[in-house]
Amino acid sequence: MSAAEQRKLELDRKKQRLAEMKSLRKREDEARVQNLLRLPVANGNAQNGSANRQTLSSNEVDEILREVGIAPKSTTREESPAPPQGAHAENHLDPMSASASHPRISSLLSVDLEFSTVQTASTDNKDSAIYSKGTQTDDERISVGEFSLGSQEFDYDDDMIMPLDHGQFRGRAHSRDQDSPISYNEEIAKILGHTKHVDKVLTRQDTEEKKTQSVQTIQPLSDEEKNRLTLDPEFLDSFNRSCKVIGRALNEDIDIFINYTKDPYEKAIASDDLLHLAQVYHDDTWTSKRLVTGMAFSEHHPDLLAVSYGPCDVPNEPPGVIVVWNTKSKRVTAEFIVYCQSEIQSVAFARFHAHLLLAGCESGQICVWDNRLTSRKLPINRSPLTTQAHTQPVSCLAVVGTKNAHNFVSLSRDGRICSWNVDNLTQPVDGKELVTKDGKPASATRMSFPIGEMQTFVVGCDTGEILAASRNGADPAVIKTDVCYKGHSGTLTGIEFHRASGVVDFSHLFISSSHDWTIKLWSTKDANLKFSFESHPDLVLDVAWSPVHPAVFASVDADGNIFVWNLNEDVEGPVARLRAGGEGDTVYMNKLIWSPDGKHVFVGDDEGRVHMYDVRESLYVLKSEEWNRFARVLSDMKESNEDAEKYNL
Amino acid sequence: MSDFEETIRRLQSEKGVVGIIVVDSAGRVIHSTIDSDATQSHTAFLQQLCEKTKTSIRELDSSNDLTFLRLRTKKNEIMIAPDKDHVIMVIKDLS
């Protein structure tokens, strides 16, 4: 025999042995499967006996069922387990084929991939298996009463063994595929080391799932059980104890969310739609971080609002800036930007010169810009710094008179009042010192002329006094005032004559705001007609009458509150309140002005922003009766003042 | 009226109480004063929440245990008093 033949023989022998082994294994495997499947039957679970199913006739099954205590039902009942059983068998194959395919693919397969495949297989399996058996278990439990998770657990265990017990896997895999059993074994052994830990986690997850499932499938208590429980003294004892705790918790009416720092009015403010923030006028380069020092609307173009800004910290930036905003534009648009080399204290449009803009400076100068010269940012004209004019900051400007005979009047901090001709700033028409009754110079902060009036006016002082004066006087250098309104105890910050004109004349009324946290209403005609509004929680910084509604005015304070008052509705408090800025964030509101149509309130702050607020329609669309109502309100005020005086005497 | 019902009634008469659910330790409803759908959903979620809280507390300190759970929400306040063999849930309307 040649060596080649010998080898051939040996090969044949080996093949034979291999075939034998194959068949042996197959047989063994089958036997084991049979055993496995028969096991449930031995437990008495007829329905779970999957392998024997084919051999059991329907009669036999009925018999078994009867033994357990389940009346045999129609044949459909018999058939119903069949498909799941089939599915079960299929699923048994699934992981096998899946895992068996692995050695064929590659022994270098990553651990993760291997593991996840197994997991998928098991989930699939579980799904179909649970449904079929779960239903049966439920039925059984109902009938038996005390049956718990026995069969379910078996169910789970059976499934869970597969991902866990790789030995079993291996055996099955062999029967299917023998191409490289050894390498597969090694693979498994390797993986086992890695996956043991992961498996544990998996098991825990599975048990948790099982738990939640068992919770879901819990049957509601029967009435009988409920009754039994509610009569159980032990239960009642602990129940009553818990109820007492809850009762106490319920009765504890402390609001744990209470915020003592919060303004109690805040809610009303936020919910009130009387004021609505519509726009914020702001320019990063020109206005940011600058205090708004003055605001004025143009009479020729009611859309244009001139706003003067104070100095900013940035070096080389002009200390005084005026921006003319277009308030009709939806976009924030600055029509003109002009500046000068002194801080600007006050601003005004020259009423009878549509294109001229006036400003009073910190230095005492008065500057004029012409907005026809768009390229010229610096003033076209300025007043000299002489004792004839102002040497102190010009705090107030007003253009008075008629088209053909007009002046503009400026007031400086030292109480000097100058009248000017707009066309000629080289020297004032006249300049007079304002002195109080006892001859002291008045340190004036604000002034206001009544509508259509150019001679008499009122001036608010640092001391809180308000002086009524007339520009006409015998003395060419001094305006001596006889009338003094005393009431405020702090510096006057705002003063304004009544503006709305209608069927009743209220032009004798004026209103003032002060650092003493109050707003006061006065009349030049009637000393008894006065009223104090004391709702502001901080320094009141400005006040302004509505140009259209006789009884409406608005005020701002240093805390950022904006109040709108309607004296026809409420004389004690504002009808609308709004606090600018968020909670804990105070916006210092410095200036306030109404738009000429009375539809908006503009408020300037210390950050260079001008906030435009829309007011509700009822504040500018008015009925004629508002005038008479306001007259009645005023007469009521007067009456109560007179009464109070009477009792005081 | 049994003692149990009496207690429930007294609890329900407290201001703002809109619902009381009593469940046993397995989450089965013993008594409820709200409709069954709401009871079911409340029980399912609150029971889970309660269990989770309990386990969390025990994980943090094994000698500790949950005694009372108050949930403040925008609309109401839910008080959960877990005991050995039952859990009481009370829903209180805040408005």
From TrEMBL, chain A:
Bias (Basic and acidic residues): 1-32
Composition skew (Polar residues), residue ranges: 44-59
Main localization, broad class: cytoplasm
InterPro entries cross-referenced by the UniProt entry: Dynein_IC, WD40/YVTN_repeat-like_dom_sf, WD40_repeat_dom_sf, WD40_rpt
WD repeat placement: 485-532, 533-568
GO molecular function: dynein heavy chain binding; dynein light chain binding
Keywords: Cytoplasm, Repeat, WD repeat
Pfam families in the record: WD40
Cell compartments where the protein resides: Cytoplasm
GO CC terms in record: cytoplasm; cytoplasmic dynein complex
Region span, Disordered: 1-101
Designated name of the protein: WD_REPEATS_REGION domain-containing protein
Organism field: Caenorhabditis tropicalis
Automatic annotation (TrEMBL), chain B:
Keywords assigned: Cytoplasm, Cytoskeleton, Dynein, Microtubule, Motor protein, Transport
Gene Ontology CC annotations of this record: cell cortex; centrosome; chromosome; cytoplasm; cytoplasmic dynein complex; perinuclear region of cytoplasm; spindle; spindle microtubule
Family matches, as InterPro entries: DYNLRB1/2 (IPR016561), Roadblock/LAMTOR2_dom (IPR004942)
Cross-referenced SUPFAM superfamilies: Roadblock/LC7 domain (SSF103196)
Compartment(s) where it occurs, according to its Swiss-Prot or TrEMBL record: Cytoplasm, Cytoskeleton
Pfam families xref list: Robl_LC7
Family listed: Belongs to the GAMAD family.
Protein name: Dynein light chain roadblock
Species of the source: Caenorhabditis elegans
